[in-house]
From TrEMBL, chain A:
CDD domains in the record: ABC_cobalt_CbiO_domain1
Entry GO CC: ATP-binding cassette (ABC) transporter complex
Organism: Psychrobacillus soli
Family annotation (PANTHER family): ENERGY-COUPLING FACTOR TRANSPORTER ATP-BINDING PROTEIN ECFA1, HEAVY METAL TRANSPORTER
Keyword Repeat: no
Membrane topology field: Peripheral membrane protein
Chief localization: membrane
SMART domains, A to Z: AAA (SM00382)
InterPro entries: AAA+_ATPase (IPR003593), ABC_transporter-like_ATP-bd (IPR003439), ABC_transporter-like_CS (IPR017871), ABC_transpr_CbiO/EcfA_su (IPR015856), ECF_ABC_transporter_ATP-bd (IPR050095), P-loop_NTPase (IPR027417)
Protein location: Cell membrane
Residues annotated as domain ABC transporter: 4-245
UniProt-recorded name of the protein: ABC transporter ATP-binding protein
Length: 282, 261
């Protein structure tokens, strides 16, 4: 079942000449994780804003074509209700903290307060999320004084607490160190396992290879390649679109060149290990 | 998991201090009366008594250190400045001293003393309220009184923005220093290095405010329906209401007596 459909969509920001998104068509199914990749300026964040309904509700401009969120035209959605349906996490961990709460526990509860949840249920829900994301040590800390990685985890917790069916995640690890990146991706994996529909913009293609079910490649505001993660991330054309191939794919191609090719082009480390194990008979 | 901390949200937030635990609006009421008394009486002795009373309240609320730290500096700066300006420039007949073209008169000194202590007393009310009341508690009460949560958010967020801007300016100054720009030493050096950062500082703040609006939207900030509150304050007790009514009645009586008398 589709949760979002995009039909012939083009979009131009106000006071700009060119279109940031051009003739996009895609059907997004419920419960899948979609990786969105592309070079800088390819329209990834604009695409996120479209999927989240920020376009046309927050960002004005020229929108043509149709976007259906759960079979209702995005233009007919009450923008205030969209936030209860679609969660949004973006790259800057510093601006995602409300700045008005003095503890992480209260920060996570903010969205639920806005939704009008009763206090007992609210506390239980926050406890659940704190445990899920292993934030026990942070709950009494001031969110304004946390590190970037911790703030990003709190931002995730705040959105997860609201239990949205769809979550748009725009470059969540671009400002984080490898350790924090790993923590964030373990949270994304958790969301996948909960059956959420995830839109994940990420430059680290190795992580996209690990976690996405389908991948969409954007270039100059257009979808230039899309399909299953295996199909897309093993396609050498990606390099011409300004996107790196996963290390596993590069290794597979290098082995092919050296006439030691694997059974298929691997896109993840585990696939490479598996194929090499089979070859050497371990 | 610290369940003691979590369970603290299930009860009203109290600090076990009679003054701190007053409802923020009751505190505001009392402090406003204290600030208005010297305006009505117009005697420096009354202002001084009120100022001393602030210190007593601050001590009784275990906020003496925080209050004194801010207030003494502010009082010395504003008080001395206002006193000197008034004492030097208010004309009078009873000349005390002449310094160049300036004539200091008894009338000027009296006026300076009265005006300086009055302003310092008013400032004291503001400082005392700010150290004895958390802004978020005041906003919570205002929200419950019907003030839109957008307005309370803007106020709380602006207060945090002041801290954020301060931190950001320090960060930019550090980076400037790392690039070899002199940010210390002479005042002229400091000014020269400070002004160029104002542009990026405020542009950054404007750009962040857009992201913050998106982040708040993602937290259902504009969701229809009434929002709830995790924190709650102690309900205003009957005794607190009674004392407050009594104080207000005495104050109104005092004003009437001053006006009629």
């Amino acid at each position: 079942m589709n949760c979002i459909s995009v039909k012939n969509v083009s979009y131009k920001y106000p006071y700009t000449e060119g279109f940031a998104l051009k003739e996009l068509n895609y059907e997004f199914e419920k419960g899948k994780c979609y990786g969105i990749i592309g070079a800088n300026g390819s329209g990834k964040t604009t695409f996120c804003n479209l999927l989240r309904g920020m376009i046309p509700h927050f960002f004005e401009g020229e929108l043509t074509g149709d976007v259906f969120i759960e079979e209702t035209d995005v233009r007919n959605w009450d923008s205030n209700l969209l936030s209860t349906k679609i969660g949004y996490i973006f790259q800057n961990p510093f601006t995602q903290i409300s700045g008005i709460k003095e503890t992480v526990f209260e920060e996570i509860a903010l969205g639920l307060e806005n939704l009008g949840m009763e206090k007992e249920a609210l506390i239980d829900r926050v406890i659940e999320v704190v445990k899920l994301l292993k934030l026990e040590q942070l709950i009494k800390k001031n969110p304004n004084n946390l590190s970037g990685g911790q703030k990003q985890r709190v931002a995730f917790a705040s959105i997860i607490a609201m239990n949205n069916d769809i979550i748009v995640i725009d470059e969540p690890t671009s400002q984080l160190d490898p350790e924090s990146t790993a923590e964030i991706f373990s949270i994304i994996n958790l969301l996948r396992n909960q059956g959420k529909t995830i839109f994940l913009v990420e430059h680290k293609v190795d992580l996209i290879a690990e976690y996405s079910d389908e991948v969409i490649v954007l270039k100059d505001g257009q979808i230039t390649l899309s399909g299953s993660t295996q199909e897309v991330l093993s396609n050498m054309d990606l390099l011409q679109m300004g996107v790196m191939l996963p290390q596993a794919s590069m290794l597979s191609y290098d082995m092919q060149k050296a006439n030691k090719q694997l059974d298929s082009i691997a896109i993840t480390k585990s696939q490479v290990i598996e194929q090499i194990k089979q070859r050497v008979g371990v | 998991m610290d369940y003691e901390f979590i369970n603290s949200f299930k009860k009203p937030q109290v600090q076990n201090n009679w003054f701190l635990d007053l409802n923020p609006l009751s505190k505001l009421n009392i402090i406003l009366i204290l600030a208005i008394i010297p305006i009505v009486v117009k005697r420096w002795e009354v202002s001084v008594v009120i100022i001393l009373f602030y210190f007593l309240i601050a001590a009784a609320s275990s906020r003496l250190k925080q209050f004194s730290k801010v207030y003494v500096r502010l009082a010395l700066l504003i008080g001395s400045l206002l006193f000197i300006m008034r004492a030097m420039f208010i004309p009078g007949e009873d000349v005390l001293m002449k310094i160049g073209f300036l004539t200091i008169t008894q009338e000027g000194v009296d006026h300076g003393l009265q005006f300086a202590t009055l302003v310092v007393a008013i400032c004291g009310a503001l400082v005392l309220y700010s150290v004895a009341t958390q802004a978020r508690d005041l906003m919570l009460v205002l929200e419950k009184k019907g003030v839109p949560h957008t307005a309370t958010y803007v106020i709380l967020s602006s207060l945090q923005s002041i801290i954020d801007l301060g931190n950001m300016s320090k960060l930019i100054m550090e980076s400037q220093k790392a690039r070899g720009i002199e940010t210390e030493g002479k005042v002229t050096n400091r000014i020269k290095s400070f002004f160029p950062i104002l542009g990026p500082l405020f542009l950054g703040a404007i750009s962040n405010s857009e992201e913050k609006a998106i982040a708040m939207d993602a937290r259902a900030f504009y969701a229809p329906g009434k929002n709830t509150h995790l924190r709650e304050l102690r309900p205003v007790s009957l005794s607190e209401k009674s004392v407050l009514i009594l104080i207000n009645l005495v104050f109104v009586g005092f004003i009437v007596w001053r006006v009629v008398g």
